[in-house]
Write a structure and sequence with these properties.
single chain, alpha+beta, globular, 298 residues, 40% helix
């Protein structure tokens, strides 16, 4: 990318600066993109496509990208992370691809708006746990995220720390601890609307990553998984209990809830809004039940 960034730029104004850069399009004026920026963007998309076409197996060792996950989920990851990889539906890989492409687009917009981007995919290490941060913008660690409208609100409203099932806060804290910085954050794009939001967590909601790593090391030594990450929640008022959102997308939900329904395991039903996984059935749903073999893939 071109090096025409401004030393006076500040991370806190990045969204406004990007919108201002693109405002010429609203006036039917051309957005001037240097040829070298276009060429490099194309090369980065090419590299993302090649990497996506050769997915790596899940690794069964601790790394910064998973350090913030709930402890029981982490236990399963560290014992048999390859199982999670095999259970991905083909649609998940499509989601991974456009996520990578959109992240490259966000970085292009950042650079066009005059902000300094450096240390892209730099390897870091904290107490033996390694990771690769997305980048630094204006000297601060920034994690680029693409999100649905539902998840995007956590970034735009600054409430991610209250509901962080994927452990993004711990991941950011790890990168900042390694780099000795403290004012970084998340630059998120709403995949549905194109909106951008910057969330810079304050010091009181950040994770003590060294303590977190110490606790995870202890859990890793356990022969059986720790307590469940989330409790089942009611579905309606007839006594049925279902998995909460934090469990629905977990690849280990079948093993984790093998004691559900008096030992029969989870039962899944196809609703118009998607699958529901029940841990207790008092009243049978009037929709199609998904078989166990099919459930292993969803």
């Amino acid at each position: 990318m071109s090096k025409k960034y401004s030393t006076s730029k500040n991370l806190s104004t990045i969204v406004e600066d990007i919108y201002e850069t693109l405002s010429c399009l609203c006036e039917s004026e051309e957005l001037q993109i240097p040829d070298e920026d276009i060429e490099e963007f194309g090369e980065r998309i090419k590299a993302a496509l090649k990497s996506w076409s050769k997915p790596h197996k899940e690794r069964t060792h601790l790394r910064m990208s998973i350090i913030g996950r709930p402890m029981r989920r982490l236990w399963y990851d560290l014992k048999n992370g390859n199982l999670a990889h095999k259970r991905n539906h083909p649609s998940v890989f499509i989601k991974f691809l456009y996520g990578h492409i959109l992240e490259e687009l966000v970085l292009l917009l950042v650079k066009l708006s005059g902000h300094k981007v450096e240390d892209e995919q730099k390897e870091i290490s904290v107490d033996g746990v390694k990771g690769h941060m997305d980048c630094k913008i204006d000297g601060e660690v920034v994690d680029i995220k693409t999100a649905s409208s539902f998840a995007f609100k956590k970034f735009s409203d600054g409430t991610l720390h209250d509901d962080d099932p994927f452990g993004y806060m711990a991941q950011l804290s790890g990168y900042e601890t390694a780099e000795g910085t403290e004012d970084g954050g998340f630059l998120a794009m709403n995949k549905e609307s194109g909106e951008l939001a910057l969330y810079q967590p304050g010091p009181f909601v950040k994770i003590n990553i060294k303590e977190k790593i110490k606790r995870v090391r202890e859990v890793e030594l356990l022969d059986t998984p720790p307590v469940k990450c989330y409790n089942p929640i009611p579905d309606g008022k007839r006594g049925n209990m279902k998995l909460p959102r934090g469990c629905v997308y977990c690849p280990y939900k079948i093993e984790c809830h093998s004691d559900a329904n008096n030992g029969q395991g989870l039962r899944a039903f196809q609703y118009s809004t998607g699958l529901k996984y029940f841990t207790r059935l008092v009243s049978m749903p009037k929709v199609l039940e998904v078989t166990f073999r099919e459930r292993q893939k969803v």
